[in-house]
Amino acid sequence: MTTTTTQIAVFLKNVPGALHAMLRALTDERINIEGLMISDAADHAVVRLVVDSPSKVLHLLGDRGAMVVESEIIDHEMANRPGELLTLSGKLAHGGINIAYIYGSTPKRGTRARIFIHTDDDAKVLRLLGKRRAGRPAARRR
Q1: Domains, the chain, ordered by start
Q2: What does 82-111 look like in DSSP terms, one character per residue?
């Protein structure tokens, strides 16, 4: 299934304990992290998150003085087996779509992987992969 979801980008000082403090705040509010990517620069880190309560995170971290940005990102579910990411990247390359970044986690064997993708043409990716409306289950195949 392919949908869009809300991504939260948090700009943190690149110092010991900054990430820990942010994660403690999320944990204290019982916010679940569904996807995470961290990239660093000399003086700051960008923490990209997909969470179960994005508006709650916006207010929580914003009220604590963090620079927080909300955006839409592609949420793509795929089989957890070798070659699936290769197939996906091939479809996007064939469609002339550049991947800016991609992240997710590998689930335990037998479950579906969930990845988050930002490209130079997210609308085209949704058309190519068959967008489903968020919050609605995909039709079952018989």
Answers
A1: 2-72 (3.30.2130.10), 73-129 (3.30.70.260)
A2: TTHHHHHHHHHHHTT--EEEEEEEPPSTTS
